[in-house]
Amino acid sequence: MSLSVQVSPLEDAGKGPTALVKLVGRLDTLTAPQGEKEIQPVVDGPARNVIFDLAGLTFISSAGLRVLLGTRKALAARGAQLYLINVQPQIAKVLDIVKALPGINVFKSLKEMDEYLAEMQRRVEEGGS
To answer: Which residue among 33, 117, 120, 128 is least crowded, i.e. fewest CB within 10 A of its CB?
Structure first.
């Protein structure tokens, strides 16, 4: 199976420029170079928040993990955040087993991520951390 990468901007709801990256198919040794190439404009772009929607990702290998880790590292270097949503159980299991992606926040849905971000902002506005 191949990999499809769909990138689209999301409306700025006070969180700064946000990009949604939908991965569909397999992120493995054969598709990782394509994935990196198609994700690179997002990494180099203005988005402060990058959301990977993994609802359609059916398989990830160590090469795929390197793509996610490399993306997170490059985004962090410019002060941007990477989020994962709609993680399928088999992908979540891989992430849990390898614990290779420290610093990536994983959410069940875009709604859950937005609620989390809203709560974090509320805490900061109230003087908390």
So the answer is: 128
Asked whether 34 and 3 are in contact (CB, 8 A), the reply is yes
Query: CA-CA distance, 100 to 107, in Å (whole number)?
Result: 17
Express each pLDDT in 11-27 by its tens digit.
Answer: 766 677 899 999 999 99
pTM to 2 decimal places: 0.77
Q: How far apart are CA 47 and CA 76, in angstroms?
A: 12
End-to-end CA, the chain: 44
Q: Which domains does the chain have, with CATH numbers?
A: 3-125 (3.30.750.24)
- Burial class of residue 84 in the structure, from the number of CB atoms within 10 Å of its CB (0-12 exposed, 13-18 middle, 19+ buried): buried
Residue 82 φ/ψ, nearest 5 degrees: -115, 135
Q: Which two tokens stand for residue 17?
A: 């420029």
Residues with Cβ within 8 Å of 128's Cβ and at least 6 positions away in sequence, in order, are none
